Amino acid sequence: MTSNRERRMESFRPIVGIDLGTTNSAVAYIAEGKPQILPSPRGERIIPSVVLIDPQGRAVVGEDARAALVAMPDRSLAAVKRRMGSTEPLLLAGQALLPQEISALILKELKSYVDELHGEGDKEAVITVPAYFTDEQRRATKEAGELAGFVVERIINEPTAAALAFGLDNLENDQTFLVYDLGGGTFDVSVVELMSGVLEVRASTGNRMLGGEDFDWKLVDWLAERMIAEHGVDPRDDLRARALLKEKAEDAKKLLSSQETVSLAIPLVTVKHNTPIGLHVELTRTTFVSLIDAQLLESMDKVRQVLDDAGLHAANIDEVLLVGGSTRIPRVSELIVDLFGKAPRTDVNPDEAVALGAAVQAGLKSGALSDSGLVATDVAPFSMGIAVLTEGRLGAPRAGGFAPIIPRNTTIPVTRTKRFSTSAPGQTAVSIEVYQGEHEWVKHNHRLGEFLLEGLPANYKSLEPLDVTFRYNLNGILEVTAQSPANGKAMTVTVQDALNRESKEALQESAERLQKLWDQAPAEEPDDLLSEQEELMELEQWLDEEMDDEERTDEESPTVLHEEAQLLIGRVRDQLDQLESSAKTRALREMERLEQAMEAGDIDRLQQLIDDMTDFLIELEL
Ligand code: ADP
Ligand code: MG
User: Fold this and answer.
1) What are phi and psi of 604, to 5 degrees?
2) pTM to 2 decimal places
3) Most buried among 63, 243, 352, 510, by the most CB within 10 A?
4) Of the bound ligands, which one is closest to the alpha carbon of residue 208?
5) CB 133 within 8 A of CB 78
């Protein structure tokens, strides 16, 4: 006899699927032969991907952290996924943490739901990433999983996962899907083919700067314009007002997915001449759609591009799957109908599809679904190759040409070898520079690493041949081997090793540091959420401060200015990746000036620079 609990444990294998989203994350597993979301103890099926280090020094993840974004902007962080792969630490409550460390805290939260069910200890996980994530971003994601205490079985592409969630119920029909995934911060579109139970991604593209967040900001701008027109005040100049408007804009946006109009009533947005200024406005879906239509149309351009890449026409697509919270906007379905002449499938929960699909992949791996008859394959999101001498425009050899070895959209895992040669007689060493990208010149592509193969036979009569092999595995991690066919001399690097010299100890140390943040004794109060009363008090205090600020004309306190400067710097740093190169250069210069002025304690200059930076941000619509 087995108890219910034992039966449940039996059907639950501790290998889970995780959607580590820009905005929201979720964890799922296979139970009773079906992928299911593992909710938080509070019953949330998805949680905001927001991390807070609370005043007690404890890491808090999810809704509570999201609620603190406005009140504690320097203690909380959202959308860390946009920073994945960067080696620049982010400042959170005065602590420098790498993007993967912050992501690890999110994963630790999800892991705690799994532990609840299955006991503590290492767990295996399949984690999803956008199809166009670079090698570094995939590795950072894998590392985040390891730091959280997961054994990362596989990193898979989000659209593949979504299609997997869908494919499981529809195995009998061979079909071609288009997965349109519009989330909070990323847009991803893929063509996925299901044939005799085998799912294969034919092509993928996307835009990592397109998502619901952008729609929120469009709406914030629109609201700000109203306030400027009515009160001559730009609420975006006030960081807190900006954050508040953003929150309200998102709420309004969501309501407009199910109703035609929404009334916004915010009694206090900001303060001018000691008078609180609020906002009351009616917003229609039509107005909202007009604000974001250009961006939605842009996403449809990507849809056409992916069809092109796959060598297909709209008519060849059997089903369009909508994934991601932003596909709830009715205009998205309209545009799909316009292009495909048929409605998208709605039997996939857009918030959960990716996590559920990751669980399916996990189930295939663990054996929980081994009799499903389903196999999943994936494609390389970029071309990968090496730098070579090519013929320049005038016929003379020119360095820096790109020779692809694995072309984009090749089904993976894949191993490809190409023969090259040394470039000068007598040469006994060659430097292999590895790149990914689509441009014929490497300087426009993304550099993955470089290594030196020495000990080639000195050949003075002709050029010496050289075989370069690329092995790209299912986690999207690349192994490169260069070998001399003449003497067998070879050298292999995994790009992971080539780039990431961080030792195991460093990883261990980081994991321990995160564990500490996680384990900090909880405060006396059972919950660290601000009570409504406290929130009100905060608001009043803020109002007082704002009034004070207004009165204090010439003599801003240095601390306030420093805090303001830090906030601005943080804000700009968070958005750096999204800036065009000239704006980026200017942003970096302004940041540097601000930092210098802070160091020098030059208050007048600091005030001036803060004003400049604020203007700059407004100019960029950040
Ligand atoms: P991500 O994949 O980036 O983590 P999600 O798929 O969870 O994101 O989508 C989150 C986005 O979806 C947010 O920008 C959120 O505002 C938006 N969203 C959620 N529900 C709705 C809705 N009903 N209408 C419009 N947008 C929505
Ligand atoms: Mg998503």
Assistant:
1) -60, -45
2) 0.69
3) 352
4) 1
5) no
Decide if pLDDT at 252 tops 90.
Answer: yes
Least confident of 43-52, 74-83, 264-273, 569-578: 569-578
User: 352 CA distance to ligand 2 centroid (A)?
Assistant: 9
Beta-bridged to residue 418, according to DSSP, are 468
Q: Which two tokens stand for residue 299?
A: 């996403």
At residue 519, the 3 state secondary structure works out as helix
Taking the domains of the chain in order of start, what are their residue ranges? 384-494, 553-622
Pinpoint the alpha helices (H) of 341-452.
353-366
Given the candidates 3.40.1410.10, 2.170.130.10, 2.60.34.10, 3.40.1160.10, the CATH classification of the domain at 384-494 is 2.60.34.10
**Residue 183 CA to ligand 2 centre (angstroms):** 5
* For the chain, percent of residues with pLDDT exceeding 70: 85
Does any ligand 1 atom lie closer than 6 A to the CB of residue 186?
yes
Sign of the C-alpha dihedral computed for residues 388, 391, 392 and 396 taken in this order: positive
- Say how many Å lie between the CA of residue 172 and the centre of ligand 2: 27
Q: Which residues pair with 621 in a beta bridge?
A: none
Handedness of CA 95, 99, 100, 102 (dihedral sign): positive
pLDDT at residue 548, as a whole number:
52
Give the burial string for 208-233 (b: 16+ CB within 10 Å, else e). Answer: bebbbbbbbbbbbbbbbebbeeebeb
User: Is any atom of ligand 1 closer than 6 Å to the C-beta of 183?
Assistant: yes
Decide whether any atom of ligand 1 lies within 6 Å of the 235 Cβ: no
Question: How many Å from the N-terminal Cα to the C-terminal Cα in the chain?
Answer: 62
Q: How far apart, in whole angstroms, are the C-alpha atoms of residue 144 and residue 154?
A: 13
Which atom in ligand 1 lies closest to the alpha carbon of residue 350? 6
To test the pocket of ligand 1, the residue of 326, 333, 351 to mutate (highest count of ligand atoms within 8 Å of its CB) is: 326
pLDDT band at 477 (very low <50, low <70, confident <90, very high): confident
Q: How far apart are CA 55 and CA 37, in angstroms?
A: 31
Condensed to tens digits (0 to 9), the pLDDT of residues 86-127 reads 999 999 999 999 999 999 999 999 999 999 888 887 789 999
